[in-house]
Amino acid sequence: MSGSNSSLERHEGIGARVPRRELKRLLSGHGRYLDDIKLPRMLHVCFVRSPHPHARLRGIDTEAARQASGVAAVFTARDLNPLCEPFVGVALHRPGHRSPPQPLLVEERAVWQGQPVVAVIAESRAEAEDAAELVAIEWEELPAAADHEQALGSGIAIHPELGDNVAFDYALEKGEPAKAFAEADLVIAEELRFERQLAMTLECRGLIADFDPSEGALTVIHSHQSPFQMQDVFSRHLKIPEHKVRVIAPDIGGGFGMKLNLYTDEVAVAVASMLLGRPVKFSVDRLESFLSDAHARDHHIKARIALKKTGEIIAMEVDDVGAVGAYGMPMRFNVAEGMMTITVAGAPYSFGNYKARTRSVYVNKNLVGMYRGVGMPLACVVTELLTDFAASALGIDTVEFKRRNYWPKASLPCVTTGGQRLETVSFHECLEKLVDLMDYEGLRKEQQRLRAQGVFRGIGIATFVEQTAYGPPYYGPSGAPISTQDGCTLRLEPSGAVRCITSLTDQGQGTLTAIAQIVADSVGVSAADVAVMGGDSAISTYGGGAWASRGTAIGGEAALKAGAMLKRNIVALAAAITQTPPEALDITGGNVIRSQSGQAVISLAEVGRIGYFRQDTLPADFDVQLSVTCSQAANDKLYYMANGVQASYVEIDCETGFIKLLGQWAVDDCGRVINPLLVDEQVRGGVVQGIGSVLYEECIYSDDGNLLNGTMADYLVPMADEMPDIQVAHVETLEASTRLGAKGIGEAGLIGAMGAVWVSVNDALKPLGAKILHQPFTPERVLDALARAAAQRSCSR
Amino acid sequence: MPEAERDLAGLEEIEIEATINGQRVKRRVKARQHLADFLRQELELTGTHLGCEHGICGACTVLVDNRSVRGCLTLAAQIAGRTVETIEGLSASGKIADLQQAFIERNAAQCGFCSSGMLLTAYELVSLGEAVTRSEIREFLSGNMCRCTGYHAIADAVAAVIDARGQKSAGRA
Amino acid sequence: MKARNFRYIKPDSLTHAYRILEADAEAVPVAGGQSLLAALNMRLSAPKLLVDIGDLTELATSAHSDREIRLGALTRHCELLRSDLIRRKLPLLSLAAAHIGHVAIRNRGTLAGSLAYADPAAELPACSVALGATLVLGSLAGEREVKAEDFFKGLFETDLRKGELIVAVKFPVPATQTAVAFAELARRHGDFALVGLAAVATLEQDRIAAARLVYLGCVDRAKLATSVAASVAGLRVPIADTAAFAATIGEDISPDDMPGLRASTRLHMATVLTRRVLNALPAGRPAG
Fold first, then answer.
1. CB neighbours of C32 closer than 8 A, spacing ≥ 6?
2. What is the rounded CA–CA span in Å between residue A46 and residue A292?
3. Greatest pairwise CA separation for chain B in angstroms
4. pLDDT tens-digit profile of A568-591?
5. CA of C244, closest CA in chain A: separation in Å?
6. How far is CA A573 from the centre of its chain?
């Protein structure tokens, strides 16, 4: 390792802006992503998928495909399905949650457009695609329940055995909401729609399944956020002993939750490999990804709030319906978006009366799964839009309104009406910091001045909470074998450097660098002398991986513990070598030192040399342990609650409906900031995804369930020219229950941005009496909103 | 096939010679194979990535005769007699060292999947030797999709390099 | 996706190219390939033979005189942005080219490719009609000339005959009082235009004496918008509203509904854009 003086002098531990070491590799073309990897005798798969949202499978003719050049096999349901335990995406702790089992390949009936039917395996992807075109399938089209209205009202039962298309129906009530609404001075009620979206990672999904028939062992190189989840899945569903399954995550080109889900097409690839005894690669094609990647959002929400004329919120009500696709998502239950929407709504504000309901509805569409923020962005939008409208109606400045309604510091810890536990949150501090950062007063003045000139700008402020780093109480009762522990193995190398194996994965967040910083601080070496690897289910502790903003908070805590343990062991050895009391020693800068004087006593390299090669010089009963392993799980913690607030400044071209983004500001409290460079950029990336959600992204379907915009030219994600600069600042309120004090940050950017942009666009429209409540805010939807307002004005004359 | 017929019929496989990252390369390529697949599969230069294969995302951007092009919208056959530079070549030659350093310092890359294409496009911009505004930087990069960074740090990095090379950028460093 | 199998041939000369295209009905020429290769990768089309004309010097010859600028078929979009001559004499092309895709697309895409493909949302077909250009078409039978305004016949349909290639495009150098303007509405820079307008006008002071207006994005082909042009003749810019042509614009453009955008919305956007483009004309007078 480097050991250079400059790196020892520069503070590289917790809190430092340390550049990510993996960037040197990734920026020089040395990344090794799934599709870059070749194994000997590897084959390639291409799936033939249902072109229809709902159709009966009458017959498949694979003869021509089998004969095609380069084809090794053509598999249908008959070949693969019997070898896999069915997947049932039901959360056990949600009574009434229902899902039929989901087959690997279509058996009798396809229930979503894109559902895989035939797996064609050939020497190359091109040949597999050629052969796939030769597969002849006879379909009998059936009427489709393409959206939740059709699903609830049309009488089309997607799964007849369930009776109707309601996967889950859950209600909660706190206090006396009916009374509060009846007594309110003001009620604001709105209906919001959030169209279906995609995560659109730049690298599509993929895996290489490599079954070794001689050992009965399965190795999967998998572009997946949780190798442990998949190790469990492959083992349990394919009946391979768990210790003979190994899942390795290579470099991954973006996850955002999409690569956390369970995909039957991926499991089908593993079965294919088992049948063929050869590695099989599945590299999802972009066109295919629109139909097969787990989707997100697709909600219809009716919400209202009740207030006193002083501006005090007294009640809230939310009625949510989510169209979750054709099946329950196994492991990563798609009821979560609805549940989080209704339980997180209203969270920053203290009021005692709440009523909410969420229904998850099956539709003939691809499955909804996990995507950054899950239901929390919807909760933020609903809450912040309605409160902003309320503040306007009452003539109260929106910032002042928030100051009055936030949970007072003195009331923490508390539980919100939706059941959210707020402990170390910082609503007021974040708000004040934001007001300062964005020059709120200045922008309001500018907005007023320009309104008088017919230029319509909007300012939106959105407060949010973010559940991060879910613990055992969150998944345990669900029955899903998802572990929320993570761990860290540390080994002192003979040279004095430290090797770290973490159970975490990194899809670009920089988690591995943060771990290096934590290890460096806790052991007493330079971060540059810590090598970190992760993402291999066979070599680290058992763990979770990356999702729900958990890596640094949980894996980092494990690294901290492991570092302290390694330090103790190194100090014990150094004490024995130098005949010094261990309590008098410490480690810093790669040397064991006397704590009091700071004088170096022995280098780590020398400790390593003796500990590994010259144990003969040590006392006979001295036990050298220069390798340690620790895990971390917070047994009783549902999550670490983080919070933040964002602002958006926009201008609307009222003639064309186009929206220009003038600025974005984010103040975030994720507890201890391990690396501000990584945190800022996570926030920025999330912000732009949030902007994409509000302004650009939607899966557009025909009335009968055909996806109409399944290409990169037609599904719009933000590109550089339209995006604003984003200012980020931090507040650090440490998580009280851990030594590290870090919470998660991965989703905050998206959650707050969705709220802020929804509010700012509507703020711009206020003088025109217009509202826009249907995301994404396409130019047409903006123009329609303006036209509705103009029509209302002329009616009222 | 008689010469007269071959003269009109074309072939499914073509012999090409090209200079790739400074090295003369001679290969038989399938007519249908695009340049990005040729680089990745035949030459095992996997630093050029595929994000869409319909020319929108920019992940496959490489230099052909010193101009940025989409590797997926160029046939391997079309590089016959030309010079091609990929991220590996530009990196080894040091031509993008300042860009790489600027990206690293600002965390202008997260998953790294867009970065090869982003760096090549940025290289073309800084090589123009012109003064550009921050807005012009964003416009130049508008054909390279990044899903992780939100573009702010990338614009910062490119602006810093342009400034450092003495071409004023009026952008934030 | 990976393209289907096809044969590839690189002709030695323009005549060789003509012979190939004449002999094989399924042969498709490729130059920049920015539209064609995307379609092949998506398996939207399946030509059996690609004829690579991208290096034929006969198609890359440009020339200019005081009265006319002749651009070779293989003029790349990026040249329209970089060429000093084009920026001075045919600024409409430079203005429009900035909206074509992105840098990497512009480095490869060609003028003739864009005109032959005739995408109704493309910039260059509209500009060539607005500028009164003439296309030079060649085949084994020889060369013929077709005015741009007669070349675009329908949706993705042109006057190109089997075995023919666009050899060059001739642009008359506009007279001194000619002003140009171009604008398009697209969701993101470089996206296909929802609506766009290329305008070439003779201005007397601030009065529009005559205008050649060609819409893109809300039409099935590039054609002169004669009704709107007639409605605005004689008007002084800046125009305050759209009254002059709001009624007649429907005669010139008839957009279709598309997913997420109704025809009526597009018509509205085109009306707004018309006013903005006309008002940009005074600034679009040539510098000299």
1. C54, C76, C108, C109, C110, C113
2. 13
3. 64
4. 999 999 999 999 999 999 999 999
5. 17
6. 43
Residue A126 corresponds to which amino acid? Answer: A
Which chains sit next to A, with 3 or more Cβ pairs under 8 A? B, C
3-class secondary structure, B119: helix
Taking only the tens place, the pLDDT of each residue in A681-736 is: 999 999 999 999 999 999 999 999 999 999 999 999 999 999 999 999 999 999 99
ipTM of this complex: 0.97
In one-letter notation, the amino acid at residue A765 is L
Whether the CB-CB separation of A167 and A360 falls below 8 Å is answered with yes
Q: How far is CA A728 from CA A400, A430, B151, C70, in A?
A: 22, 11, 14, 53
Q: Note whether A332 and A230 are within 8 A (CB).
A: no
Residue B93 tokens, joined:
């030659």
Tens of pLDDT, residues A110-164: 999 999 999 999 999 999 999 999 999 999 999 999 999 999 998 899 999 999 9
Please indicate whether, in this complex, the C-beta atoms of B73 and C33 are within 8 angstroms of each other. Answer: yes
Residue A549 is predicted with a pLDDT of: 82
Mean pLDDT confidence for A20-41? 97
A434-448 tens-digit pLDDT: 999 999 999 999 999
CATH, domain range A374-468+638-795 = 3.30.365.10
Q: In the structure encoding, which two tokens stand for residue A185, read together?
A: 């001075």
Residues of C in contact with B55 (CB under 8 A): 34, 37-38, 41, 105
CA angle A93, A97, A100 (to 5 degrees): 125
CA end-to-end distance (rounded Å), chain C: 49
Domains, chain C, with CATH or none: 7-52 (3.30.43.10), 57-172 (3.30.465.10), 178-284 (3.30.390.50)
Dist. CA A166–CA A168, nearest whole Å: 6
Closest listed residue to residue A271, CA positions, set A478, A85, A6: A85
Strand pairing report for A659-669 and A726-730: parallel
* pLDDT for position A9: 34
Instruction: Please choose, from the candidates B112, B32, B133, C250, the residue with its C-alpha nearest in 3D space to the C-alpha of residue A681.
Output: B112
Instruction: Kindly determine whether residue B142 and residue C190, on different chains, have CB atoms separated by under 8 Å.
Output: yes
User: Nearest-CA neighbor of B117 among B99, B98, B93, B92?
Assistant: B99
B-chain CB neighbours of A33 within 8 Å are 46, 49, 113
d(CA A103, CA A268) in angstroms, rounded, equals 10
Residue in B50, B119, B145 closest to A719 by CB:
B145
A481 touches chain B (CB under 8 A): no
Q: Is the pLDDT of residue A202 over 50?
A: yes
- A783/C191 Cβ within 8 A: no
Q: What residues does each domain of chain A span?
A: 5-29+485-632, 34-142+200-292, 374-468+638-795
Check whether the bond before A718 is cis (ω within 30° of 0). no
**Exposure on the CB side of residue A272, measured as CA atoms within 13 A:** 33
Class of domain A5-29+485-632: alpha beta
List of domains in chain B: 11-89 (3.10.20.30), 96-164 (1.10.150.120)
| Interchain pair A126, C2: CB under 8 A | yes
Tracing tokens 């004499």 back to the chain, one arrives at: C89
Q: What CATH number matches the domain at A34-142+200-292, 2.60.40.10, 3.40.50.720, 3.90.1170.50, 3.20.20.210?
A: 3.90.1170.50
User: Tokens in use for A39?
Assistant: 């194994």
pLDDT in tens, A295-321: 999 999 999 999 999 999 999 999 999
- Contact call for B91 and A32, based on CB within 8 A: no
| Spans of chain C, pLDDT less than 50 | 288
Q: Do B72 and C41 touch (CB under 8 A)?
A: yes
Residue C144, classed as helix, strand or coil, is: strand
